[in-house]
Structure formats: C-alpha cells, structure tokens
Design brief:
- With 313 residues, the chain is of the alpha+beta class.
- Strands 3-8-4-5-6-7 form a six-stranded antiparallel beta sheet. A two-stranded parallel sheet has the order 1-2.
- It is elongated and about 80 Å long.
- Pfam families: NLPC_P60 (PF00877), PG_binding_1 (PF01471).
Length: 313
C-alpha cells in the first residue's frame, strides 16, 4: 500500500510540473503579438518618449531580435538597442529613430515582388515603410494602388534604380537598410494676409528711408521734420494704413511680434514708458527720428532698451 501511495504522489508531482512547463512555454508566444504600427505620421522617438508610437517602435525592435521593454516608455536600455539596430543596417549608431530608422524597421522581412493590384500584409509593410519616409499620399490600405506605385518609383529614382513602380529586391534592400532618404517637408506658403502685411511693411520702410537726413522736431509729422511717432505714422500712412499718433498708442495697436520674428516695417518700441518708436529695417537696425539736433537716421537696436514690437495692417 505504501508503494502505491508513493507512486501516486510521484505521478501527481510530474503532472504539476508538466502543467507548469506548458504554461511557461506559452508566455513568449502570447507576448509576441503583432506590432500595431500603422500611423498617419511617424514621430521621432528618443529616450523619454512615451505613447503608442513608442510602443510600436519597441515592438518592431523586439521582432528584429533586440530585447526591449514593450511598454510605451522609451528607456535608456531601449535607446541602446535602437543604436545597435541602426549600426547593424549601416546607419550611424544614434539613439534616435527618425524617418529612415522607422522605414528600415517597418520594412524588415521577406522581399517579395509587389506591383499594382497586389494585396496583403507585405503590401501594408511596404506602405508603412514609405509612409514613414514622408510619402503622405500613400494610404495604409494593404492594397497596392497608384499612389503606392508612384512612391515606389520615387524611392527607386532616389537610389538610381530602374523606375518600374514594382518592389524589386534592390528596393527592399534599400528600405531595410535605411538608404532611402526622407521626403522633404512641404514649405508652408505664406497666407495672403501675411504677404499683404509684408508688402505694406516694405512700403512703410521705404518711405522712412527716404526721410533719412530730415530734421527732428517735437510734434512734427512731416514733410521735412519729424518726431519719432510722427515718422512711423507717416511711413505707415504711405503704405495705406492709419495708425495712432503717439508711441504709447501705437504700442497698443497692431499685432504683437516677437523680437525673433521682426520683419521690415514693424514698429519697434524702446525705453520705459514706451517713449520712443522706430521702424525695423532688418539686421537689427531701425530707422528713427531720435532727438533735437540729430536728423532722421538708422541705428542698431542694441543701443536702446527694447520694450516690444507691433505689426500694423
């Protein structure tokens, strides 16, 4: 009877171990879920980045054979793994993922010949890779359409390949090694109101420059003598814009402008109490009417205590 009990206990222990091993063996499979990596725009990821795109990058690195913590928080460890991946495909070993590292990771895998009309996971992989490079007309549909073909031709042209619009082994290799350069971001066209303001500013400045050499007289508004706000008012009147008479009132009108964003024609104010104003002339200079005995001229802004700037019109 004792032997039977011992055998039963041994069998129970063996079954428990088998269940334990089976459960442990299933964990990696469940952890290796497909990476959710479809985005309209792929962000630059570096140490400290967080969110869905960070998690996607971590997942892609893991699938490429680099152990990362797929938790949506890019750690020092993750950044080091990214640098190793970059080095492995021929990119500089930086710890930042921009367009080309993204494209390289997203395109990892087999290199099938794809062309218009094809559908499936490989097409989506290609589209993600192209989208990461800035081909914004490529939509992540898993269907190889006209926009995908156009982007493929563009990438082939960049690499000096035959522009077939089909994914050859050479194109896949270029994508997977981060050798296809990103599409430059389109330049923003200035709004019509911005263009109009710039044009008026140029006219105001041109008027002010024509008055250089005229005398200063307190309260004067031209045509041959000016005080500071009289000159700025006359200049903007010549540009078709009426502004208040005094420097303090001019400071309260128009659009506030940062010092770093000054454009020719902007009104620039100086001294406590906003007691002086000039017209920005570019390169840190203003045209102004300064004081009795000194004619209208140009001066570096740095020689007067800056208080702010406004853009009329």
């Amino acid at each position: 009877m004792g032997k039977i009990l011992k055998r039963a206990a041994s069998l129970a222990t063996g079954l428990a171990l088998a269940v334990s091993v089976t459960a442990t063996a299933e964990l990696p499979a469940s952890a290796a879920a497909t990476c959710s990596a479809s985005f309209t725009k792929y962000q630059t990821i570096s140490k400290g980045s967080k969110g869905a795109q960070t998690k996607a990058l971590e997942c892609l690195l893991r699938d490429a054979g680099y152990s990362t913590t797929v938790n949506g928080s890019f750690s020092v460890h993750d950044a080091a793994k990214l640098a190793k991946f970059r080095k492995s495909v021929g990119l500089s070993p930086l710890k930042v993922a921009g367009p080309r590292p993204w494209s390289a990771l997203l395109s990892q895998g087999s290199r099938p010949l794809l062309e218009r009309g094809d559908k499936g996971a490989d097409v989506l992989r290609l589209q993600r890779s192209l989208r990461a490079l800035g081909y914004t007309k490529v939509t992540l549909t898993s269907t190889f359409g006209a926009n995908t073909a156009a982007a493929v031709k563009s990438a082939q042209k960049k690499r000096g390949l035959k522009q077939s619009g089909k994914t050859t082994n050479a194109l896949w290799s270029a994508l997977q090694h981060g050798r296809v350069s990103a599409v430059p971001a389109p330049k923003k066209k200035p709004s019509s109101s911005s263009s109009s303001s710039s044009s008026k500013g140029a006219k105001a400045l041109a008027f002010a420059k024509k008055q250089i050499g005229d005398s200063y007289r307190y309260g004067a508004t031209g045509p041959s003598s000016w005080d500071c706000s009289g000159l700025t008012g006359g200049a903007w009147k010549a540009a078709g814009v009426k502004i208040p008479r005094t420097s303090q009132a001019q400071f309260r009108s128009g659009k506030k402008v940062a010092k770093s964003d000054l454009k020719p024609g902007d009104l620039v104010f100086f001294y406590s109490g906003i007691t002086h104003v000039g017209i920005y002339a570019g390169n840190g200079n203003v045209v102004h009417a300064s004081r009795p005995g000194k004619p209208v001229g140009t001066i570096k802004m740095k020689y007067m205590p800056y208080q702010g700037a406004r853009r009329p019109g």
